[in-house]
Amino acid sequence: MTTVLDSKIPEGPLNEKWGNYKNGIKLVNPANKRKHTILVVGTGLAGGSAASTLAELGYKVKSFCIQDSPRRAHSIAAQGGINAAKNYPNDGDTVWRLFYDTVKGGDYRSREANVHRLAEVSNEIIDQCVAQGVPFAREYGGLLDNRSFGGAQVSRTFYARGQTGQQLLLGAYQSMSRQIGLGNIEMFARQEMLDLVVVDGKARGIITRNLVTGEIESHSGDAVLLCTGGYGNVYYLSTNAKNSNVTAAWRCHKKGAAFANPCFTQIHPTCIPVSGDYQSKLTLMSESLRNDGRVWVPKKQGDNRRPRDIPEDERDYYLERRYPSFGNLVPRDVASRNAKYACDEGKGVGETKLAVFLDFAEAINRLGKPAIEARYGNLFEMYERITGENPYETPMRIYPAVHYTMGGLWVDYELQSNIPGLFVLGEANFSDHGANRLGASALMQGLADGYFVIPYTLGNYIANNELPHVAETDEAFAKAASDSSGRLEKLLSIQGTKTVTEYHRELGRLVWDYVGMSRTAEGLKKAIVEITALREDFWKNVLVPGENSTMNKNLEFAGRVADFLELGELMARDALEREESCGGHFREEYQSEDGEASRNDDLFTYVAAWFHTENGHQLVKEPLTYENVKLTTRSYK
Amino acid sequence: MAENMNIKLKVWRQAGPHTQGRFETYSVPDANPHMSFLELLDVLNEQLIKSGTDPVEFDHDCREGICGSCGVVVDGVAHGPQRRTACCQLHMRHYQDGDTIVVEPWRAEAFPIIKDLVVDRSAFDRIIAAGGYVSINAGSAQDANNLPIAKDKADLAMDYAACIGCGACVAACPNASASLFTAAKISHLAMLPQGSPERKKRVTAMVDQMAEEGFGDCSNHAECEAVCPKGISISSIATMRREYMKAMLS
Fold first, then answer.
1. Beta bridge pairs of residue A607
2. With contacts defined as CB-CB under 8 Å, which chain A residues touch B144?
3. Would you say the ipTM is above 0.95?
4. What's the pLDDT tens digit per position in A410-431?
5. Within chain B, which residues score under 70 in pLDDT?
6. Does the domain formed by A482-604 have CATH 1.20.58.100?
7. Distance from CA of B130 to the nearest CA of A (A)
8. Mind telling me how many Å the CA of A251 is from chain B's nearest CA?
9. Fewer beta carbons under 10 A from the terminal one: N or C of chain B?
């Protein structure tokens, strides 16, 4: 069992590492690339960009997604934008500053070298996407427009109305489609990865289930790229799409891949509040709204007046008051936690009192309604559709919701997990955002990994390793396939009394209450006990309808919830072990007198990588060293 | 809190592509006005599972109106009565206690039914694969600002690019044409200099693929525009026709 994790950071000064790495790798002969089959699981920004780029290079790519089309991966729902250090606005941005902001925003729990590479390739991403025809917003002179986002003092965010993720994903999807048309990518839609196949210590294939026919399929290849997104749906209610899940990553974890920093989850401050028990998911409003919206609550507890009837001097613009230099643009974790405090103090608004106001009245007065409509029209429309209220006339009600997970499978500098041949890209890995991700950085990371990192690092792996052909009839495939079918049969055979959704909702409540915005040792211990009990009950009493041989979404969900029930426990363990507050991980025991997070750099400047063993989980620490950035207390005051 | 409503649902049930389908009637006694339409189906499915009946299968994912997964015909209208709204964003506050709602899948030869309300829309992917892209390999792009594009052109391109590929346009069209879907992509790329080098090849390949998939042609009913959740204009179809003529004549 691996006990030392080698991050394989290249030699040299920070800004030369990526160049040094590229100079030092072995290349695969163009004529040989077509002899290698690469399995890419997931078709979001990371998977879509990786599949198309590798196919362009000449590899034989097989691509898999659970949706009916690769165009529907959840990256499509990202709204606000994508960061790059272009410095087009001439406001002082540099690659260093983007790197620095990302490391600082991540509360010093990410790897310097990975983040610097991300900042370095950020500009190429914008070039690539524009060349694909992504219709980014433009100025009247015809050049690209930028806007500012939380956690930065420069305008470096490129955007396509409130649909940036959609446009970037369609760009990647169209590139993929071109390669599908050319026969370089074989596409498998409505297929779910259920297991990783490891042969002679290397990742050599996957087991999938055809979600239409229920058939279990084996796919062999020379490397597996896992681009399957985050695990936010462990909370049941999140802004993730309903089908987003941890299953592919979790099955790799159970085959030996380390899972890193599972407790680092991000709660997004600007979501539409929960309205009732039937709620199936939460909808995010892009945090770009905080550029012009002002967050406030009434100063008086339980103030039920209409917002317009509450005079200025009876309102608490708490972010502007507590953080005068960043104001409403503080990073997400800070904004979320402060909303929780306001509601905990009884100053929440709306029917449920679990909401704060986001008010555009001042911006509408200053800029006029048309200007606000041009910037946020589609978001305002979406808000009105869901709540039945018009945000031009009355302030929005917002509340934090789970949105992104910084933790994920452990990877080295090459984006390779500790299982050789298993690469993990995008949100599914842990590497770039530390304990908190800045806005507009997820799209950047997904595309950086797929377009500009994996083509080099995968090539280096292929060129350096003997990869004898493994047939899909190999024993390892048969065993994994039979394990997967056995599990499905077991789920169907229980025929208990509680539905999958009921279990999921209960799990969600536990992780939200104890492993959510604010955590305590006592709560986390309780969570471990209760999640374990819930999981045991699930395997005795779950009611999964239908059969295995047809489309059966409940059966799909049952498998995913079973995995979430294991992950939820590990998140609590990780959160319990990390006795400090950093980024999205806030332990009540570790805070300053005025309620700000207290990091403990002496003891916790490491990546917590968890291995699955027969006797439970084993923690391996990868120390983080900061040679270029001085660790400071994050201050947005 | 808002009062609960009793809603009757007449839902199309079909076990598989080759089996006979039929309507089944169910009632959901505790529908809430703040619920989305898909949450109403969730509540129905929980009821069905508990009573030993197979739940109604329907495609859905983001539930924010952007992924394009969901799409059913609600009371005869693709995505239901609210304009520019995918059915995941349709809320029950537009209905009243005692209402009956009829729910059917998209019906088109090119979209075979898989089960209940789920259809196979892979024909759309094949139309894009025929030419709905700019041929540019990763790494070969010039600086993004070397290519100024007038703001009004860029905005118009974005209007067309907003298509979510849900298929409502096909379901609403008397000819089951995929013209709006196909034209949206052609028009998006036709507005931009990046799309220019391949414009002739693109329009002929995509239009041919559309016909090959079994979609009908456009006869200007404009039903597609009326149901499109993203409000894609049929002016795109005029653009597609112009592009096609230009490609044929040169």
1. A622
2. 86, 126-127, 129-131, 136, 144
3. yes
4. 999 999 999 999 999 999 999 9
5. 1-2
6. yes
7. 6
8. 22
9. C
